[in-house]
Amino acid sequence: MDRINSEGLRVFLTVARLGHLGRASEALHLDQSTVSRKIARLEDALGVPLFDRVGRSIRLTPAGDRFIPRAERLLHELREAIADAAGAANPEAGEVRIRFLHTVGARWLPERLARFLEAHPSIRFTLREGQSNEVVSGVLDGDFDLGILGPPPTASRDLEIVPLFRERVAVVVPAAHRLVGRSSCTLHDLAEEPLILPRSRGGLRKVVDDAFSREGISQRLAYEGDDFTIIQGLVEAGLGITLMPMPLPLPSTKVAVIPLRQPAIARTMALCWDRRRTLPPAAEAFARHLTQTASEPLDPPIGAPQAAAAS
Question: Quick check: pTM over 0.70?
Answer without folding.
Answer: no
